[in-house]
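Newbie here. two chains, one complex. Structure please?
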Amino acid sequence: MTALMALVGATLSLLVSPPAAAQVGYPPGACTATVASSGDFGAFPVGSTVTLTIRAVCTFTDTTATVVVNGQAAGTKPIAPDGTVVVTVTILSPTELSVNPVVRGQCGTNTVSVTGFSASAGTTVTQTATFTLACPGVRPAARPVRGRVAFTGDNIARWSAVALFLVALGGGLVMLDRRRARARSEG
Amino acid sequence: MVLGLVGLTTVAGAVFGAFVVRDLRRVEAQLRAARAAIDQAALRAGGLGTPEGRAAVTADLDAALVAIASARATTVDSPAISATGVVPGLGRQRSGLLQLIDDSSTAATVGRELVGRITAVAEGARVREGGLPLDDLAQLRADVGRAAEAVGRLRRPGSGLWGPLGDARRRFDELAVRNARRLSDGGDALEAARSFMGAAGPRRYLVALENNAEMRDQGAVLSYVVCRFDGGRLSFERNGSVVELALDRPAATPLPPGTQEVFGPIQPTRLWQSVNATADFAWSGQAMHDMYRQATAEAIDGVIAIDVPGLAGLLRAVGPVAIAGVAEPIGDHNVGRILLHDLYQGLGPRSEHDPRRERQGDITEAVIDRLTSGSHDAVAVGRELGEAARRGHLRLWSSVADEERVFEQTGLGGGPATALPDRTFHIAVQNRTATKLDYYVKPSVRQEVQLRPDGAAVVRTAVVVNNRAPVGAPPSYQLGPDGITKKPGDYLAWVLLWAPAGSTQAGGLGESGLVLSQYVVDVAAGERREVVFDTVIPDAVRDGQLRLRFVPQPRLEPVQLQVRLRAAGWSVDGATAWAGPWDATHTFIWRVKR
């Protein structure tokens, strides 16, 4: 009898509180942007020194990160206490970049990837950034348009204090604005 | 002789001019006094919800009207100013000055009359046994509509005025148009509020209870109430945990591309706890509507989202309430501590199904019980709800498109991009765990705005996540660990910055009408971590103004915000630094000139 009642109780509690499996995906959990892009850092001619400060979405938390430029190993760089990695690229020629070491570059888009451990992801993550090597006679690739979302809206009003709007009308008294007053006193 | 006449005329002109200037300065001083009185009234306008506040605003407007009348009398009685009427070209200016003074007087009179109407409504308006004064609101709506028309008629384009007087006339006309529209919007809001409260038929609402100890863009939706309005009469149906509303598949609400990319992985159309991770409450409201219908096969007409500070406001209006299992009465002064800390004490990390943990629904039920019995000052209740909405602690979504449009226009609903999207920042620190650590997490924001010679603004935003959870505490439901974090007190901060539409920042993409970038950083108990965003706003200066708008995340306590403008090579009118609690939307306007 006791076992039967326990079984009934357990069934009832399942009906009231669905098992945890039904809430898979909650909570959001570890950072999942393990491969992410910081976007394009702009166009630079030969002879420029480009400083890329790269911050991973899943913030780096180790001491060093591995750098790859255009698919070539480019050593390691320190991770700053704020989680950023600074990669300084000197454009030696249309085909050579110095990131200490020297690696192959190319006119147009060049890609810098930084890989390091992130505690918020619980694994290594890779953040990429690109820049354009502007060569004479070579048109740079179009930069992706970011964040252009058309949106219209009106000013804010609050129904519970509508008379507030009217008192602002006393700005018929804007004719007294301070600039005019100052002009008169200086005149 | 001729020279003597010329000299005499010059001297006479100078003397005449001196008298004109003297009298105009007197007029100016009187109008400045009127302006000061109106500014004072504007500062007090937040107190319109109390009899004392309304009396003070009325007194200020009366003082302004007296000063305006004095200015008119000085203008009319001044022989020097009157004499300008016969000088070709100056006569129009004199009549223009009088017209502007008269229009100011009309505007202030309309304002005073409207305050009088609000006073009359407030003194009679009560919430009686859950019944809201819809007839009073209808009358007020009509009054506001008439005021909007009266103010709109004050615009006089093509006045032919020049110099400072012409500038003043143009600014007044702009103000008249803007405020007529605001009044019209206010009237629309009153009408939307009436229909939302069942003036045109019964309405049923999901009240999403947002828990500020587990933050998404707002507090996570962990419990709910269902209520009804019928002819303005409020009634309670039921409350419960969102676990009861579990969905086995996502609702059909479409996700915009940016929302899908950033928030799709946390299933915002299937998981209630994820539905308001996006900043766009218009989307979240639609999603909750669809999710509720799918979970229950029941229809609702809208969503009311309210968090713990919002509940505190209602408790301020109706007084403390009692709920089972809690010894002390719960009022505005202790609801945050009790709901978001005390009730979690003694619960182990795996207490998802403990009925003690989420009691917001019980308190909401108790507040509704209080409203539906006895009599309450409707204006006081309305004032608290208005204040909660202003600070982001109360949001509305309606399935009726016209109502929803009004809610978004007036800031009662919608997301941060409903106004000035190309000048708006919004920042959220969200909790990627199921702990209730946001009770202890205190973010702050420091922003430095650098204005370049080309008029672009380069903005560096530093978000500091300060985790004040106790160090070395034992595992618990509130502190974790919860399987994602390792130690009690570990916080996984999801730091999201929405920047102005049209701006650029690393990793930015369009979401909620703005440009969103994100970082996730772990912050142990007792630690602080800083995350920095760099944003470039092209063509930031418009019509000699740099304007930036900041929409807050509605946390248990407001985030501390610092903003500093650096504009080398520009002259800036106004203070270039501001610091304070980010407890409502702030708009900074700097007049700049090169």
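Moderator note: Chain B has a mean pLDDT of 91. The first helix of chain B runs from residue 2 to 44. Thread marked as resolved.
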